[in-house]
Amino acid sequence: MLSLAEGKILVKLARETVERRFRLGKFYVKRVDEKFEEKRGVFVTIETFPEKELRGCIGFISPIYPLYEAVQRASYASAFEDLRFLPLKEEELKRVTFKVSILTKPELVKVKNAEEYKKKIELGKDGLILVYGNNQGVFLPEVPIEAGWNIEEYLENLCFKAGLTPEVIYKKDAKIFKFQTQVFGEKEPEGEVVEFYADNTSKYSKA
Questions:
Q1: Axis crossing angle, helix 4-24 with helix 67-80, rounded to the nearest 10
Q2: Which of 77, 79, 117, 141 is the most buried (most CB within 10 A)?
Q3: Which pLDDT value is given to residue 206?
């Protein structure tokens, strides 16, 4: 687990990566403290403020880069390479927030039948990865909470995310992996950085 102080460094790094791209016209990886050398899976989410509408979200499920590098690559990709959105403009920087999700190593959910998923997946805690043939779909843990889904709806929409139909979940060669995240983000653009629950509220704003 990372400390809040460490989370603040990573969120600041995510924002600085995008600012640096506008300032210098190019992307490069900046080295930081050696405590971020461990390879971790990471997603960076950019949202509009105060609407909290998605503006970009890309990351790496597998731990293929050191944490400091994964954050920077994911931040750059979320801002400029998420094909669902136009590239971020410099004037938007003061109207968006950055959120960094650090992933645990994905773990295969072993079941004898699809009904067992209901007992082995915890809403708000477990992010999911569906792998079937060449298709893959991923949801971060907060997604079903924000959408108000139950487990069945979570799995069904995971299939849709992977470009598949819901019955795929019942096929023996369909694999579902679960992972957890630790999430740090800005409460407002360039503002205080806090750690978030899956329901998108701050751990430090709850009694």
A1: 50
A2: 79
A3: 35
Does position 25 have pLDDT exceeding 50, yes or no? yes
Which pLDDT score is estimated for 202? 57
Q: What CATH superfamily classification does 4-104+181-196 receive?
A: Hypothetical protein ph0010; domain 1 (3.30.700.20)
Residue-wise pLDDT for 121-136, tens only, equals 999 999 999 999 999 9
- The number of angstroms, rounded, from the C-alpha of 152 to the middle of its chain's C-alpha atoms is 21
| CA quadruple 165, 169, 171, 176: dihedral sign | positive
* CA distance linking residue 87 with residue 37, whole number of Å: 29
Task: Give the closest residue to 183 by CA, choosing from 163, 207, 159, 199.
Answer: 199
Contact 29, 21 (CB under 8 A): no
Report whether 37 contacts 68 (CB < 8 A): yes
Q: Are strands 181-186 and 135-139 parallel, antiparallel or unpaired?
A: unpaired
Domain 107-179: give its CATH code. 3.30.1490.150
Of 117-131, 173-187, 193-207, the least confident: 193-207
Paired strand residues for 101: 43, 183
